[in-house]
Amino acid sequence: MKNYDNFFLPVDDLECAIKYYSETLGLKIKFNFSDKGMVAFHVGNEEPAIILKDKKKFPDVKPTIWFVVDNVPSEYEKLKSKGVTFLTEPFPIGTGTAVEFDDAFGNRLGITDYTK
What we know:
Helix content is about 20%, strand content about 40%. The protein is an alpha+beta fold.
């Protein structure tokens, strides 16, 4: 694990959450994919963002932390060999590949790479 990537938070009302995070907390929008059920906010000058995920589009969403790795497929195989059970096979995203899993304590984590 090289670094944090993003922090995902579930929300019941995406429009209300956008207003809260932008107007109340004063965070700037990094990207707005409301049509896909996600909006990201910058936190200072950090690359990792807080990404709100609409529960209507992602009913199984949990608070999730993603980590950056060099290569998701190879890290996926390495972690599987150590007993990690993934929620899905690795999947393509706009910047590379990602995959999520729950740790032994019920926390949702994920890994992603920037291979695109």
